[in-house]
Every structure is written in C-alpha cells, then in structure tokens.
Amino acid sequence: MNPKRIVDLLGRLAVLKYFPAGNDAVMEGLLCLVGDMCADESQVEWLVRRMTSGIYSEWPGPAEMRACFCSRFPPKDGVNAYSTVYLDGLPPSKESRLGIAGARLKGLPAGHTVSADQGVEDAVHIACQTKALTQNLGGPATEEEIGYSEDSVESDR
C-alpha cells in the first residue's frame, strides 16, 4: 500500500465532526492502524466510504474504526472488534447487505441466578445466607450464642 495514498484517503474522515484533522501524530497512528488491519488500498477506501456514509455523525475514534472494518473484513492482524456505538451490530452496508451481529451473551442455565458454574452459584448463595443471618442477629454471633466456652474446648480435647 502507498502510504501517501492512504493518508489522502484517511484525510476524507475530516468530514466527521471532531476528527483531529491536521494532527500529524493522529494521522500517523491511523496509518499504522489501517496498515495493520487492511490487506490492500481497496479495503481502506471501503472503510473511509463506510465511515463517512452517514452511520457516524462524528468521529468515533480508532477502536470504533476497527469495529467498522471488522464488520466487513477479517483484519489482517487478527484483532477483531465489536462496535460500542451499534451494540446489535453495524447497519448493513449498501454493498454487502451483510450485517455482522454484535457479541452475543449466553443466558444463565435454568435455576441459576448468579453463575453457570454450580460451585460459584452455591458459594454466592451461602455467602448471602450468612450475611442475612449476621444482619438478623444484629452483628456477629457472640460466644454465648454459639455455645462456646473454655469448658467445652477442654472437653473436646
């Protein structure tokens, strides 16, 4: 890829409100980012066209730029990203009509309220019950309430 051509393409992002146009360090960073992600100039062209197509009203930053790219292409560097602007996935583009869905979260199994791991589930419930008992007693149990005495310790030995 020709770096000058890529910088020219990235310069088109200046139509987005808050894009840091004229900042050489930012452009260098974006040049490195698209160099890591994109396999060729046509992918950079698509990315800039997509980001300036109206789906973003202002510059969303480099992480969202990566998410936008990943909605269409597998990144060359293997680092995938999901949109934080479009949580259900970016709207499909006119060209592809392929909407890549956002990350899907699995639900808890039936009967679980905290974790899918039964050991974690049990531990949390025990901790909650212990806390409730402590609060009902008005604080930690005293030695008398639990039946502790020096004599009972001696007889246990």
Gap from first CA to last CA: 81 Å
Count of DSSP H/I helices:
7
- The rough form would be described as elongated
Order of helices and strands: HHHHHHH
Q: Kindly state the number of beta strands.
A: 0
Mean pLDDT: 83
Structure description:
- The chain folds into 2 domains: 1-105, no CATH class; 118-156.
- Helices cover 49% and strands 0% of the residues.
- The chain is built from 7 helices and no strands.
- The mean pLDDT is 83.
Descriptors for this entry?
2 domains, mainly alpha, 157 residues
Question: What topology does this entry show?
Answer:
Elements: H1 3-11, H2 24-37, H3 41-55, H4 62-70, H5 118-136, H6 143-146, H7 150-156
Helix pairs in contact: 1-2, 1-3
Summarize this structure briefly.
The chain is mainly α and 157 residues long.
